[in-house]
User: Fold this.
Amino acid sequence: MFGVVPKPLWEKRSAADERNRIKLRANSLLVGASGKNILIETGNGTKWDAKLRGIYGISDGDPLERALRDAGVAAEKIDLVINTHLHFDHAGGNTRTVAGRDVPVFANAKYVLQRGELEHALNPTERDRASYFPDRFVPITEAGQWQLVEGDVEIVPGISVLRIPGHNADIQAVKIAGGGKTILCCADMLPTRHHLPLAWVTGYDLYPLQTLENKRKWIAESIKNGWIVAFGHDPDFAAATLHESGGKVEFEPVDLNR
Assistant:
């Protein structure tokens, strides 16, 4: 998760267990806009065998289903799902298995994705093949539920997707503006608050120098405009405002449920 940053540096911020795993979450965001229920990211999903659960330390149960239930929104009431990209920890909850068949969890939703990301996911390289599980996204194609976009596009008034290459070629951020506030969902450009230093880029990034430049651009933009940033995997603080102090970027946690 920290690429070339030496472990003696990063473990001070994010302690590892005996298997060298660190605590992370797969954060999702539920937004109401234009009379629609919009879900950003679907997390890990539930289709994990015991071996992979052990490798990744994935908890039993379905935290996304539970969170939606607590919010009073049933899966069939989701109108749009926005996948920042199709890695298993961001799109794993796209589908579920019913009677031995993989089907979309959100049967009445359109799934919004960059066209280039779907094309790559169907033919990944040896470098990133392990991050793509076809049963998490091919059923969306079979059900005709993709809403494929190219580049920066407004999806509904106040909600736009922004292409932020680096982690891969066609990952997208989500910008939400309304009520005098703006939230930038950064996905794996800023997986946690610990990744605010520009050089702290994950080892999974296919194009780390592009990640660095996009971080430089969007962190500065967020500080300048007072935006809230939503982290893709921070285990403690899903969102924060940013400010500069003494040449370093500091964060102030924000509770999006208030």
Remarks:
- DSSP finds seven helices and 14 strands in the chain.
- Helices lie at 7-10, 50-56, 63-70, 88-91, 115-121, 138-142, 208-225.
- The longest strand covers residues 172-178.
- Residues 7-253 form a domain with the Metallo-beta-lactamase; Chain A fold (CATH 3.60.15.10).
